[in-house]
Write a structure and sequence with these properties.
41% of the residues lie in helices and 22% in strands. It is an alpha/beta fold.
């Protein structure tokens, strides 16, 4: 296999020509819909299965109340992006999505070019709602395809077949300007050749954006129990690294290079909402278990809401919001979060922004050591980023720089 990073010099030249990231990352809204038809065995997200469908009219009223509460706290903003995540937002009625978008627009008017993303399962039933979501104001959909062979989909607990998923991708491309889908790799017994073939098939679907995640064993999930019992074996570190290299090589060759550790896009097709997170912008989190970073008159705060859907609903109906944690972030904590989020990006971070937040520059001796090891590099415009060799050990780099 060729070295996936042999074009490093060419990539640096391309980066030098690219437009710099905005000075103000902007403001967005994350909306959490916590319900799923079934719980996937690898998932530790805040998602819940209910035998009876939720009262969507009641949830609309609660979302409106929590949005109004946040608006009263932070004041006027202009919304650059909205992201409906979950759970499974494609279990919402299009009218529910439209009502929530109206409430957001009333609180913080949507920019004319605002990105509005909805996560969806690629089943035929949910694909049937796509045109309704488009009419409600959604202009980007992110599909949880996860695999393109039926045996892997069954093992992952997914409720669709590969053919059904690809049919949903086609429906999505007809309904939305922008389409992304997710795949999970480093699955049991997966070989680099098989993954490369699956990835080329995915790229052949013509989507502008792919999110490609290595399978990890999350504490408290059914996969964790199987793994502990020796009944589920995933590729080890060396095999996982080989699959990572295949991912970088295959996507770059097809014109969808990585712009973040797990996300690949054609130039200009990056997820604007996720860029807002990684650039350490401001976002309101509404709905059960949602997290936010808000700039208040008292400073930046980290918020989170009640995780349980029914408990969140009751809390909002009683208090006007579901917030259970509202923590002031001191500047050193903000600087650490900037490192943690920003170094995930190919564009990296502005060290001067870190220094303004932290009240200190990055430690020169640590930085010099990481540069000497080929793990980070300075860009011509002064930005600092992880190298392709540094990305797989990013947690260690961030810990070193933040110390």
């Amino acid at each position: 296999m060729t070295d996936p990073f042999s074009r490093a010099a060419d990539l640096r030249a391309e980066d030098a020509r690219a437009a710099p990231p905005p000075l103000d990352p902007g403001f967005g809204v994350y909306v959490h819909w916590p319900f799923c038809k079934a719980k996937c065995p690898y998932c530790d997200f805040n998602s819940h299965v209910r035998h009876s469908p939720p009262d969507q009219a009641r949830f609309i009223a609660a979302f409106r109340a929590e949005i109004a509460h946040t608006r009263a706290r932070i004041g006027q903003r202009r919304t650059q992006s909205v992201f409906f995540g979950g759970g499974t937002p494609s279990l919402m009625e299009p009218g529910t999505v439209g009502a929530i978008l109206d409430a957001i627009h009333d609180a913080w008017p949507l920019d004319d070019r605002a990105e509005v993303t909805l996560e969806a399962n690629p089943t035929s039933v949910e694909a049937g709602r796509f045109r309704g979501y488009r009419a409600a104001g959604v202009n980007r959909v992110s599909l949880g395809v996860q695999a393109l062979d039926d045996a892997s989909l069954r093992a992952l607990g997914r409720m669709h077949s590969a053919d059904e998923a690809l049919a949903a991708v086609a429906v999505a491309r007809a309904a939305f300007e922008r389409v992304s889908f997710d795949l999970i790799y480093a699955r049991p017994d997966q070989t680099p050749d098989a993954w490369a073939a699956e990835l080329r098939r995915a790229i052949g679907e013509g989507c502008e954006h792919l999110s490609l995640y290595q399978l990890t064993i999350e504490e408290g999930t059914p996969f964790a129990a199987l793994h502990a019992a020796g009944k589920l074996v995933i590729p080890d570190g060396d095999a996982g690294r080989e699959l990572w290299d295949v991912t970088q090589e295959t996507t770059a060759a097809a014109g969808l290079p990585a712009y973040e550790i797990s996300n690949h896009a054609r130039p200009g097709a990056e997820s604007r909402h996720n860029l807002l997170y990684w650039r350490y912008g401001e976002y309101a989190g509404v709905g059960p278990g949602a997290h936010g970073r808000l700039d208040t008159p008292e400073g930046r705060v980290a918020t989170s809401t009640e995780r349980g859907p029914e408990a969140w609903l009751a809390r909002v109906e009683e208090a006007g919001h579901g917030v259970v944690a509202d923590e002031a972030l001191v500047r050193s904590e903000q600087a650490d979060e900037l490192l943690l989020m920003g170094l995930r990006l190919k564009e990296g971070i502005d060290p001067q922004r870190f220094a303004r937040l932290a009240g200190r520059a990055l430690a020169p001796e640590r930085l010099a050591a990481l540069v000497a090891e080929g793990l980070v590099e300075a860009m011509p415009d002064g930005r600092l980023r992880a190298t392709p060799y540094g990305f797989p050990v990013l947690d260690a780099i961030v810990a070193d720089l933040a110390a």
